[in-house]
Design brief:
Layout: H1 2-15, H2 25-34, H3 40-60, H4 65-75, H5 77-80, H6 86-92, H7 94-110, H8 112-132, E1 136-142, E2 148-150, E3 157-158, E4 163-168, H9 177-198, H10 205-210, E5 239-243, H11 252-266, E6 271-275, H12 279-287, E7 308-311, H13 314-325
Parallel strand pairs: 4-5, 5-6, 6-7
Antiparallel strand pairs: 1-2, 1-3, 1-4
Helix pairs in contact: 6-7, 7-8, 9-11
Amino acid sequence: MSFFALGASQIVCSFFQGHACAGALARSSVKESAGTKTQLSDFVSCAVLLLVLLVFGPYLAPLPKTCLACIIIVNLRSLFLQFKQLPRLWKLSRFDFFIWIVTFLGTLLLGVDTGLFVGIVFLLSSVVLRIYHPDISVHGQLGQTQIYRDVSKFQQARKHRGIRIIRFSQSPFFANKETIQQLQEDLVTEIKAFQHEVQPPGDDRNNRADSLMKTTGFMEENGVQHVGVQLDVCPQFHSVIFDCAAWSIIDIVGMEAVKQLCTQITARGVGVYLVNLDTKMVNKFVQIELIKWKEDGDTTTDDATASVKVYPSIHLAVNAASASTS
């Protein structure tokens, strides 16, 4: 079975320019360091191995096993040099660092097969963890350019007065709906805090908006955690822009969560702008009546009656939001 598996791996690798592997880790390492490209290297290595066994074998028999072990360690030196990558992995990605450590310890303590399985399981778990807890950041403009970056990481990023640009780093779906709900609560709390100070007597806008706080069949209100996004209460808070560049997939739960988020914001007189939105996402939001079509078939952009507006870039949305209050 081992020979069948090795032969199948060599055949598959030949179609994808894969690594020419061997039956032992030491031999694969030697072939990689020698720069082999094709499966013909197996014939050369087998011929050399046969020559050593038949001709040089009797002369190497008296050598102690420690000397033979040193030969194997020298051949595996490129693998041991990978430890030098750990400081770099720690700086670039903590997740990749811990994946490397877990896979190494699993292989060392449990064997190659079990160790690799443990590493794969840990890798998938880290991906799921990042999806369940996406990063939410407030972005600002870099100088007079059309580039917008996280204000907590770029000191020169400047937030526009009365406009909040929020980036949700993962596609909205059932796994992170609690994060979207908590983002909604944070935004609504800040809007209500501002409107409570400037709301004229008799204006029941907040009461009408609060009546919309009803969960759908796909949404739940319990078990949410604070996501840490805070808005600066300013006397001209009027627009929220969501950067949707990272949104590639969405399910019914995610659509309902985004719709409820936008509805709660617009119900309090604050404009909502969706930017960098994929065409498939636009079509789905049109189906749930979050975005409206114009008579000419285009999505609503500068229409003053539209509650949620779509723009192709953050800079265009910022200009439109600023012009709407001027």
